[in-house]
Amino acid sequence: MNYAIIGFGAIGQALARAFARHNIEVAVASRRSPEALLPQARAIGPTVVPKTLQEALKADVIILAVLYEGHPEIAKVLPNWEGKTIIDAMNSNAPVEDLDGLPSTAFAARAFPGAKVVKGFNHLLAATLTTDPKVAGGHRVVFLSGDNEAATAQVAELARRLGFAPVNLGKLEEGGTLVQARGRVWGPLIFQDLIRKEA
């Protein structure tokens, strides 16, 4: 299983730190060239590998950490996304009517035919996400939701490997709405920094 983070801003770098902390290799890509990303990647750790967007999208699991408006351009890079698991770490401020009344993740999933799309890692601020999730005798919670149970379980296992405590909210149109922004209204679990205590 190999991993990529698309977008290397605050959220992308915070997630890259989580991979580096556990010595898990991850490709990173953005609109900038791999050479331009190299100084930041090296500062995070040797397992963070800058690549071109085309190279990074060869990964099995792809985390979208770009501005929501940027996802259609990424979607055009591959004609088919069969076999890929996409983790949507984006948040949208688009009006509900612009998303056909759907949660933003369900709307974005239309652009990635064949992919299994899971919402995750979007509810925490970058400053929180970048810190070690093992805190106060427990692990920081990340909320997940998706319509494919196997893909959600796969992302939950990755979250555990990265030191987080995954909480599955269910399908996107059900519990997943708790971490979706609808228009200018944030879901009630967005920005909630929760810790699951160890038994």
UniProtKB/TrEMBL annotation:
Residues 3-91 form the Pyrroline-5-carboxylate reductase catalytic N-terminal domain. SUPFAM superfamilies: NAD(P)-binding Rossmann-fold domains. Gene3D superfamilies: NAD(P)-binding Rossmann-like Domain. Signal peptide: none annotated. InterPro entries: NAD(P)-bd_dom_sf, P5C_Rdtase_cat_N, STEAP_metalloreductase. The keyword Oxidoreductase applies. Keywords: Oxidoreductase. PANTHER family: DUDULIN-RELATED, F420-DEPENDENT NADP REDUCTASE. This is NADPH-dependent F420 reductase. It comes from Luteimonas notoginsengisoli. The lineage of its organism: Bacteria, Pseudomonadati, Pseudomonadota, Gammaproteobacteria, Lysobacterales.
